[in-house]
Amino acid sequence: MTTSDDTPVIATEEEITSPAPPPRPLFLDRARLEKVLPWIIILAFFLLWEFGSRVVLPLFTPRPEIVLPAPSAILPAMIEDWRAIVQNSLYTLETTLIGFAIAIVVGVAGGVAIGSSRLAYAGFYPILIGFNAVPKIAVVPVLVLWFGIGTIPAILTAFLISFFPILVNVATGIATVEPELKDVCRALGARNSDIVWKIGLPRSMPYFFASLKVAITVAFVGSILAEATAGNHGIGHLTSYAAAQFRVPLVFGGLIVTAAMGILLYYIAAWFETRMTGWATRGMDNPVAGY
Amino acid sequence: MSAFVEMNGVHLRYGGTGGTLALADCSLKVADGEFVAVVGPSGCGKSTLMKVCTGLWPASRGNVIVGGHEVSGPVGIVGMAFQNSVQLPWRTVLDNVMLPLEIVEPHRSRLKANRAEYEARAIELLTLVGLKGFEKKFPWQLSGGMQQRASLCRALIHDPKLLMLDEPFGALDMFTREELWAVLQDLWMARKPTIILVTHDLREAVFLADRILMMSARPGRIISEHKVDFPRPRTLETTYLPEFTEITHALRSQIQQARAAQAA
Ligand SMILES: Nc1ncnc2c1ncn2[C@@H]1O[C@H](COP(=O)(O)OP(=O)(O)OP(=O)(O)O)[C@@H](O)[C@H]1O
Ligand SMILES: [Mg+2]
Predict the structure, then answer these.
(1) A39 inside domain
(2) Residue A36 lies in a domain
(3) What's the domain range around B56?
(4) Alpha carbons B174 and B239: distance in angstroms, whole number
(5) Which residue range(s) make up the domain with A168?
(6) Which of A178, A202, A282 minimises the CB distance to B86?
(7) Mutate which of B14, B75, B88 to disrupt the A interface (most A C-beta within 10 Å)?
(8) Number of C-beta neighbours around residue B136 at 10 A
(9) Distance (Å, rounded) from C-alpha B264 to C-alpha B138?
């Protein structure tokens, strides 16, 4: 410690107890900004889109409204066909959620089975990766062959595409239980099922909920894919049908609605995640951890 | 001497032929209710010895007898604690401590109906280690030393006949460590479980144990034992006795020899 007056090394008590106030925000503090920023960006996105298709695109193509209609052209089309859009959206939502529910059941059950046994893990993993690697668009025709055009192929595609992330995550959570913890339990005479039930499963919950966010969005991709290629209902069907009739604004309207549903379901899953697994973030209420 | 834990000529090789030979011809006897410490150079197989004693790893050769039965799988009913306290972050401290009760019979089947009684017991134990008032906290809201206390409680809650402690205080500062020595000694004197404590802290071994077993460098076996006769309860004053320092020094030079023998 130096004794010279002009270079104090130790902060005075006052400095320690009263931290410098954060710089005044211009018009929004950080927390508010975090809330509104997504909306600003979405708005900016649509404005840019509008600009692109009204101003830039006409320089390159004589019929820009067929290549990329502007949002201002899409909105009337959506309003005009709102009934079809709502009906088909709800239909797709239902299909997706059924497939997703099956995926949760199969994913968790499979994840538990594979994660709790090294042998099963080693044995089944390669074939699962194989299944996952097959593009689902190639599977849809097969499903149609088996179940005909309609809802079932869409449900199954949503299921097939979304169970894998769930299974892998649950299996990982269970398989990576700390060996010491396993030893503590086994030295107490715990059965394998005790360890899975009391430690493996709760421990894999953060992984599980994280995977739900991924799974729900890909489930959407699956059901829409199946509807588009082999359905007679749903938003996928609507868009491919509209595309066939060159009603391009309606096609984009369907895509926008799909994206909106995807965002909505993602946040529902995310909400569940924070509700159920708050412990996993160790109560991250550190005001400095602003990332 | 009626041995409660007995290892006879145990060899243990990890991972098939060509794997690491961790224990070679390791034999020991621990009496019922005895407090034994195991010390030895790092990597000599102390943790391995714990795993073999509790049946978590099968011995490659030789046999292990616990409570009169030859060990052929996890013994059950053994309390364990490790250097890292491995608590379950989604459970409160109280529920963490009570985990063994959900596993070990007869508590397992009695727990639901007698929850209040068991909770009282857990809280009593937490009070004993100085964690009163922290039952409803989550382990990650506790300091390292506090987590370690909780982990001791978890090891003891079901009144195990055998307690295996693998460097349970290894990650703690000296003051907390010395405080917990006293806590552990109290717990042991009150309940008299058989304790096998692995430690690299020689003062800790001398303070706590009735008998200290010294291991050779890997592959580990017991090369000598030292009786420690200080009266109980021992206090920090004990650690300043010349005899205390003497034993500690003797142990230290022996470990150094063992390490030198390995280096040679
Ligand atoms: N699961 C395992 N698989 C393979 N080798 C292992 C395994 N566990 C330990 N070993 C090896 O066995 C030897 C003894 O390890 P052990 O953990 O028993 O040592 P230790 O005496 O507890 O060491 P420390 O004092 O550092 O805790 C080491 O050489 C280690 O590499
Ligand atoms: Mg060790």
Answers:
(1) no
(2) no
(3) 1-77+195-264
(4) 13
(5) 66-285
(6) A178
(7) B88
(8) 10
(9) 49
**B60 inside domain:** yes
CATH number at residue A269: 1.10.3720.10
- Does the pLDDT value for residue A75 go beyond 50? yes
For residue A249, how many C-alpha atoms fall within 13 Å in the half-sphere facing its CB?
A: 18
Report the C-alpha dihedral over residues A122, A125, A126, A131, rounded to 10 degrees.
160
Number of domains in chain B: 1
Whether B178 is in a domain gets the answer no
CB contact under 8 A, B103 and A194: yes
Is B158 a member of any domain? Answer: no
> In the 8-state DSSP scheme, what is residue B139?
G
Q: What is the CATH number of the domain that holds B34?
A: 3.40.50.300
Q: Does B78 touch chain A (CB under 8 A)?
A: yes
CA distance B160 to A210: 39
Q: How far apart are CA A83 and CA A97, in angstroms?
A: 21
How much is the ipTM here? 0.78
Look at residue A114 and tell me if it is in a domain.
yes
**Exposed e or buried b per residue across A173-207, where buried means at least 16 C-beta atoms within 10 angstroms of its C-beta:** bbbebeebbbbbbbbbbbeeebbbebbbbbbbbbb
Q: Is B253 in the pocket of ligand 1 (CB under 6 A)?
A: no
Name residues whose C-beta falls within 8 Å of residue B48's C-beta, 6 or more positions apart in sequence. Answer: B12, B14, B22, B23, B57, B220
The answer to whether residue A261 sits within a structural domain is yes
The Cα–Cα gap between A254 and B222 comes to 75
Q: What is the pTM (predicted TM-score) of this model?
A: 0.77
Q: Say if B247 is an interface residue toward chain A (CB within 8 Å).
A: no
Count the domains in chain A. Answer: 1
Rounded distance from Cα B46 to ligand 2 centre (Å): 6
Check CB contact under 8 Å for B76 and A178: no
Q: With 60 as the cut, is the pLDDT of residue A11 above it?
A: no
Using a 6 Å cutoff on CB, does residue B14 contact ligand 1? Answer: yes
Q: What is the pLDDT along chain B (264 residues), one digit of tens a residue?
A: 578 999 999 999 988 788 888 999 999 999 999 999 999 988 889 999 998 998 888 888 899 999 888 888 888 778 888 877 788 889 999 999 999 999 888 888 888 899 999 999 999 989 988 889 999 999 989 988 889 889 989 988 988 889 999 998 888 888 888 988 998 999 899 889 999 999 989 999 999 999 999 999 888 899 999 999 999 899 999 999 999 999 999 999 988 888 887 766
Q: Is A32 helix (H, G, I), strand (E, B) or coil?
A: helix
Using CB atoms, pick whichever of B79, B86, B89 lies closest to residue A180. Answer: B86
B33 assigned to some structural domain: yes
